[in-house]
Each structure stands twice: as structure tokens, then as C-alpha cells.
Amino acid sequence: MLIPSRFSTPSSGPPRVVIVGAGFGGMQVAQSLAHSGAEVLLVDRNNYNTFVPLLYQVAASQIEPESIAYPLRTVVRRTALTRFLMADVKKIDFEHQVVETVNSVLPYDYLVLATGSQTQYLGVPGAADHAFPLRTLDQSVALRNHILQRFEQAEQEPVQTRRQQLLTFVIVGGGPTGVEMAGTLTELQRSLRHDYPNLDWREMQIVLVQSGNNLLTNLPARLGHYTTRKLRKLGVKVHFQTRVNRITEHSVEFSDGSLLPAGTVVWAAGLEAALPTAETVPETAAKRKLKVQSTLQLIDRENVYAIGDLAYGEQNGKPLTGVAPEALQQGVAVARNIRRQLRGQAPQPFRYLNKGRLAIIGGYAGVGKIGPILLTGFLPWLMWLSVHLVYLPGFRNRLMVLLNWLHGYGHGDRPIRLILTPKAAFSRPSSHTRTCTS
Amino acid sequence: MLIPSRFSTPSSGPPRVVIVGAGFGGMQVAQSLAHSGAEVLLVDRNNYNTFVPLLYQVAASQIEPESIAYPLRTVVRRTALTRFLMADVKKIDFEHQVVETVNSVLPYDYLVLATGSQTQYLGVPGAADHAFPLRTLDQSVALRNHILQRFEQAEQEPVQTRRQQLLTFVIVGGGPTGVEMAGTLTELQRSLRHDYPNLDWREMQIVLVQSGNNLLTNLPARLGHYTTRKLRKLGVKVHFQTRVNRITEHSVEFSDGSLLPAGTVVWAAGLEAALPTAETVPETAAKRKLKVQSTLQLIDRENVYAIGDLAYGEQNGKPLTGVAPEALQQGVAVARNIRRQLRGQAPQPFRYLNKGRLAIIGGYAGVGKIGPILLTGFLPWLMWLSVHLVYLPGFRNRLMVLLNWLHGYGHGDRPIRLILTPKAAFSRPSSHTRTCTS
Q1: Helices and strands counted in chain B (H then E)
Q2: What pLDDT does B118 receive?
Q3: Shortest CB distance from B438 goes to which of A45, A77, A145?
Q4: Lowest mean pLDDT among A4-18, A159-173, B326-340
Q5: What are the chain A neighbours of B434 within 8 Å (beta carbons)?
Q6: A2 contact B CB<8A
Q7: φ, ψ for residue A70 (rounded to 5)?
Q8: What is the pTM of this model?
Q9: Stretch among B6-15, B16-25, B150-159, B304-313 having the lowest mean pLDDT
Q10: At B320, is the pLDDT very low, low, confident or very high (cuts 50, 70, 90)?
Q11: Helix axes A378-391, A395-411, angle to 10 degrees
Q12: Topology of domain A16-119+271-342, per CATH?
């Protein structure tokens, strides 16, 4: 039941490149293929690119969701042969070289798969229903609403144990997202003291749960130890060698059998590739990632590339870790390889240039590794913010985020403490709706 | 089944003023009662104040919803005796002097009712289900999402009549909101030309429907005539003496029996007071507004005030029209009268000082009446923006809106063209959710 589409006619003109997914990698391919002579079609289910590294700041009322979203049509309108299609991709048919969306069929000459990753709940019962993941803009706004709601509820709650439950925040996973989230919650707590003068803040606790015995395991162990000390100083309870057995609406059950009443659980633990459905499933590696050649082409598919979190790549015998710079550099490399193929040349292997790694903790502290040098404290914190400001797409967004940071880190204030409620919000009201009211 | 609350103990200390509703009027009362010696409790269902005059700009992708929302706890934290309670008010019991929320009972010595207005669909079948009102922040974001979605759908739609339907926007009501919305849609259309190079813009139409034979009927007729000419010049089809008989998902049926296929209907027609439920219903006037004495006290209730859209007031024999400056001035007056009562003095009559009226059209034009002087064109347009920037609460919000205006009106761009979809957004996902994907 496919409706004919303006995009479904086979291209009789220039060769057509279809890019599925407009994250770091996909958007980069589209930009790098401008003026290549090829017709480029960028497909995403959203009409914006999400700047994933700052999602945790949206969840913590630091910045507006709009300032880390970049309209994809702004990207494509710069070049005549590049177009955008907002659609859910249903299936990929490698044999017939078509991408099927809900209501159209898109033939391609070259295909770039950049559909990223998705949350994987590791089989923990209740996690999918009661824990908040932090991978999309809507999820970060939902988490913001939920966190603020918990403070409002706690202020009205006369029973102490219930109040403690409402004010207990559990973060599952000690990678960058878990660390950022724990750190920013301690900052949020400080800024909310003026808002809730009647709350006893000793009733609030932030718990970070990690299965191993260090944080930020993709960085040298020393940086993980520093991060642990810093978070504990900020008031976070860091639990090592702990797994989550079950999550309910009101509590978290740990692997040692203990039960912690908690009002909010943030899931920052598991990820897997967001593999598109295909007629013939390509070879996958761990976490359902697609195996690729050194050129980023799929095994046995000369005209199909996979990049970013979707692709399994190795360098010097070690797997790539799925950070944004890898996806960006792969996007440039894929565009270069497609240009080479268009000229009849062979694609070249991709090599990731590691410029260093940074992680932000909170309380004006971060960690980093630049070449052989390890950094801790204020300098890597400032570097983290600067680098992300530079990589954030769009001048306007950069300015908005900068102003929010100057205000927020300067005054210790969180100006976007807004509960744009899920119920009323974003659904069309079916009857009368009140304004500015009780 | 009322849970005891921290707020439900009768005040043994200072007299307690409860303010229900934190719009223009309610928030002003809270601010003006600071340091009055009274305990002030501001109650609203949202944790933010909404700057209603700029909602249409949120709907038109001009400004972020966050920049016209102001956290109410920022208002109350400035004074020790002022507190905020986020709650839905269920009932008011004037006899026992208590306000009942979902989970608490709030005794009061003085009560200020400021619950504003709500959309009234005037009995038009289908209006509540298919038309978009524009009275709350969530509604304006829902309308933004819907409008942008229509353009995405139109670009993918191969059938011309379906495309025309998707690109037909009907606005019901020729007051300020209807005029603003029609004007801003013409600006949005121009800024979207670059985004959708394949659309034939002659297929798009913006229709403004008015039951009478002039626009902006609260202003002198000449200004309404100018507004009509200006909107028509911008490309809006203005239909006078036309009512809407029925609204369906795909069309609007007019009073002359004609049927217009339309993808979007904005309801800017009817309003009525958002009356709280009460044991003994006070006397009401037209549009369910509460009758008040000249002092803004309810008839027969010395310690209950009503202001803003909720109250029916007259001046020089003519009813007040329900604009923001009236609510603000009434807020100041009520605070003054409660202070007088606290000192044992009699409340004084309220007099509205009309500093003038402005309305914005679009295309750098507006209209206004300052004293006896009528203004049209660029000057009242600039004055409208300036006045609203000054009245917008919060320095940060003012700066954000100003930057957006400089960018938007300067470049003709609408940077916040983001479809933060209702389905996925703001609900907790129940299973895997993809990121940056197809």
C-alpha cells in the first residue's frame, strides 16, 4: 500500500545517495557531499538534528531543548541537489537498492546507514516502564518535567519516608552520561534551595550505580578515581560492583537484594545499534552493530556504508568507542569515498584521529586525556564546555547556550525550571481548557 | 480523602491571603503584597506564569516556549512570607473560608480569584476536537508542531487537491489573536520558501473568518479597516459576515453552506471566565464572569476579590475588555485594598488607567490608539514589540526574546522550526527508543 511519492521515481539524472539518519554522522555526510554532483537525500524521523552530548543539561533545567535541536532543512537548503525527507524508515531492500518508508520507496545508488543507537535495558524487569533513558530530546524534556514534579510533590508531602522516596534519584550506569547526570543533579539541588525553603535537604539523595569498580572506564583508571572522589564530595553516593535487579514505580532492587525507595531512576547503562530492518540482514558484531570494512563499506556491499554507533569498527585491534568525533570523521570519510567511487576510484580505509577525550563531572570539574596528558579539575571542565559549544550546530543555538551557561554557572541558577506537563501538553485538548489558572 | 498538607493548618500567625491563579493579575497581587505582613499563598496548576500575548509567536516558530514562561518560585522566593503551591483547585467553600485542592485544604482570611479565561467553542460541532485554541503554552507548542507537520506532509503529497488541503490554514475570529496569527503565518510562509523549494506556494492559503464586518472591533473602525487591507495585501483571505457551522478533521463548513478543505483550524473566537467550582456560586455576568463591586470585592463577600478575565467590571458605564494592563492594575489595586483591610480601613474603588491600545498585524505593521491619536504601520508595530518586551517577566527571557526577534525579523528566518512530536515526546517510552535515526 505504498503511496507514490515525489521521491520514489528512480533517478534518471545524477546518481542518488540516500542517507538514513541525521545524527552526527549522517548530517556530516550530507554536508560533505554538497557540490559532489550527486543527488543527496537525507532521511530522518525528526525534522531536526539532536546534539546528544547536551541532553543531560536539558534534563537538568539548564538549557532549552530548542537550543540543541537544529532544523535539518537549514542544512539541506544550502545546496540545490541535497534534499530532506521526514519519514520513518521501515525496511531496506539491498537487492533492489531501495529504502522503504511508511509511504514511499526510495531507490538509491549509494546508501549510508547512520541510524545510531538505542537504549538497551539489559533484561532488567521494569526498566523499560519505570526508568528514564536520555537519548532523545523528548526523553530529556520528560525527565526534566519528572524531576521538577518530584520536588513539588515532596514539598507537599507530610510523611517523611514518602518525602525521602520522592527525593531519591538513582542513576544506573557509570559512563559519561551517568556521571554528568549525577553531577548536574547536585548543582540542581543547590540552585533549588531558594525555591523550596521548607525542604530538609538531608532527605535528598543522589545514587550512582556502577556494575564495575570504577567510573568512566573508557578513560585511564586515574581519571575514574578522581571522578569518583569528586562526585562523592559533591554529595553523590557512588555504589560500585552493584547491579540493578528490578525497577518498580517506587523503588530499585539491587543485586545484593537490598531495596531502595526511589522516585526517579535514570537509565544510563545499556546501548545497542538501532539496526534498520532489512530483507537480508547484514553481518553484525556485539551490540548488534554492523560489521564494516576498513573503508566503512558493508561486507559484500560496495555501495552501502555504515557509520557512527551503528557500525562496528576497529583501530589498532581495539573497537572504536562510539563517541561523536568518530561519527563526524567517519561522515567526512564516507563522503570522500563516495566521491571517489563516482569518479571510478577505489574507496580508501578510514583512520580515526583521536584528538583527546574529555568528560564533564559538575561542580566546575571535569577530566580529560589529551595525547599522553591527563587533566583533572577546572581546566578540562572549561575545555568540555568550549569544545561542545564549538561543535554545537548553528550560530543562534551557540549564542543561546552560551548565555544560559553564563547565567547558570555564574548565578548558580537554573532558569528553565518549567514543568511543561505531559498530560496537558502536546496533545490536542478534547474539551475546554483553562488558562493562567488554579 | 484529603491528605493532610503542610499548607492545611489554619494560620495562627499572620493573616493568610490565598491567590488562585498566577496569570497577569494573580502574580501581580503576590508581588504587590510582599512585605505586607500577611502570609501569601499563590496557587496555580502550573509552576510557571505564561506570557499569553506572545503565545502566537511560539505557535509560529518565532520564539522558544521557555522564553515566555516564568518560574513562579522565582517570584515567591524574594519574600519570606510568600509561598507557592502547585495544585489544581477543586472547590472553593466561601462559608468555611477554605480552598480545596486535589490533596489539601487551604484556609484563607482573604481570597483573590484570578483564574482567567478559557476557550469557549460556542457550540460549533467538531471545534473542540479539531480546532487548535491558543490560550496555553502547551497549546501553542501543539499548534507549532501541527503547522510544521502540514508542510512536511504537503511536500510528500503527490495529489494536488490533498496538497492544497494540507496547506490551507483557517483562523476563526478577527480579534487580536486571529489577526496576529494570520499575519505571522504569512511571514512563516515567506521564511519557509527556502525550506520547501518544491512546493508551489500558490497552493497555500490563509483564511481569516470573522462573524462581523470588521476586524479588531475593540478599536476604532478605521484601524480595523487598515488591518483588513494590510492582511489582504500580505495574502490573507479575510471573510466577513461568516460563521463556522462545523469543523471536521479535513474541512471547515461555513454559514453560507460552503465547505473548505483545510488542514489546520485555529480557534481564536470565543472565551469565557474559568470559574472555579464553589459551594455557593457567586453572581455572574455575561461569559460567566464574576460580578464584583467597584472595589473588586465580590458582591456580599468582603474578603474575596476577583480580577482579570474572571471578573466583570465596568468603567464609565462600559465593560472592561479583559486586556493584560487591566489585570495588572487590578492586581495592584487588590493588594492595596487588602493592606487597607488589614489596617482596619475600607477598600477603595478601582479605576483603570487606559494608557492606550496596540495590536500587531505582521509584515512590520501594527495599529494603535494612544489617547485620541490613531496610529498605523511601522510605529505601532515597533511599539507593540517594545511594550511586550518590557512587560515580559524576567531579564533572561527578555534577552532571549529580543535576540530571537533581531534574528527573526532581521533575517526573515524562523529558527525554531522544530516538530517535537506529540506521540513520542513527553511520554515515558514503554520500550526501546531509537536515537538520531531514520
Answers
A1: 11, 27
A2: 93
A3: A45
A4: A4-18
A5: 45, 115-116, 118, 135-136, 274
A6: no
A7: -125, 120
A8: 0.93
A9: B6-15
A10: confident
A11: 150
A12: FAD/NAD(P)-binding domain (3.50.50)
Report the residue count for chain A: 438
Of B212, B201, B43, B68, the residue nearest B139 (C-alpha): B68
User: How far is it, in rounded angstroms, from Cα A248 to Cα B205?
Assistant: 51
Domains B16-45+87-119+271-342 and B127-269 share a fold: yes
Q: How far B376 CA lies from chain A's nearest CA (Å)?
A: 31
Residue-wise pLDDT for A191-227, tens only, equals 999 899 999 999 999 999 999 999 999 999 999 999 9
For A68-93, give the DSSP string: GEEEHHHHHTTSTTEEEEE--EEEEE
- Percent pLDDT > 70 in chain A is 93
pLDDT above 90 for A286: no
| Chain A residues lying within 8 Å of B71, measured CB to CB | 195, 415, 417-418
Write out pLDDT tens, residues A57-70. 999 999 999 999 99
Provide DSSP, B333-389: HHHHHHHHHHTTPPP---------EEEEEETTEEEEEETTEEEEEHHHHHHHHHHHH
Domain ranges for chain B: 16-45+87-119+271-342, 127-269
**Does the beta-carbon distance from A427 to B43 stay under 8 Å?**
no
- Categorise residue A123: left if φ over 0, alpha if ψ from -120 to 50, beta otherwise: left
Q: What is the mean pLDDT of chain A?
A: 91
Give A357-371 pLDDT, tens digit per residue.
999 999 999 999 999
Q: Domain A127-269 belongs to what topology?
A: FAD/NAD(P)-binding domain (3.50.50)
> Which of B82, B199, B392, B437 best tests the A interface by mutation, with the highest count of A CBs <10 A?
B437
Partner-chain residue, chosen from B47, B89, B416, that has the shortest CB–CB distance to A66: B416
Length of chain B: 438
**Distance in Å, alpha carbon of B323 to nearest chain A alpha carbon:** 13
Quick: pLDDT tens for B356-397.
Answer: 999 999 999 999 999 999 999 999 999 999 999 999 999 999
Point out the residue among B128, B148, B396 whose CB comes nearest to the CB of A407: B396
CATH superfamily, domain B16-45+87-119+271-342, is FAD/NAD(P)-binding domain (3.50.50.60)
A87 to chain B, any CB pair closer than 8 A? The answer is: yes
A433 touching B, CB under 8 A? yes
Q: Note the maximum CA span of chain B.
A: 74
Q: List the one residue out of A116, A114, A117, A118 whose CA is nearest residue A304.
A: A114
